[in-house]
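Batch job 17 of 40 flagged for manual review because the log was empty.
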Amino acid sequence: MYIYELELKVRDYECDIQGVVNNSVYQNYLEHTRHEFLEANHISFAELHEQGIDAMVSSIEIAYKTPLKPGDSFISKLYVTQEGVRYIFHQVIYRKFDNKLAIKAKVNAVVVINGKLAASLPEFDELVARSQPKEV
């Protein structure tokens, strides 16, 4: 189901006084994964912006399951669906050494073209199509 994976590693400065990744840092991990995913699919935020097209996060739901600690390697995964005008990035992060779920997130994004909410964007529609289960 997940169509993209990115391996990352926790850096010491991302952790709080309890010695675990600070909750806000997970949003950076999620965003970095989305940006790398789009880049891997030849979609550039800068080029879209130059055309008057901006994709923006409208809301995020995150469930924290298992904390990551300094030096932990982890795998960030995603797939994309669409509900109305929202593109939904379903994202998870698994700690690599034991494959434990660290977080599960649902990131809602919308596309604005020349300042107006758009119903869809062909480049993103293609990503949604790739995320659909294949018929056997």
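Reviewer: the log was empty due to a logging misconfiguration, but the result itself is present. The longest helix spans residues 23-40. Unflagging and moving on to job 18.
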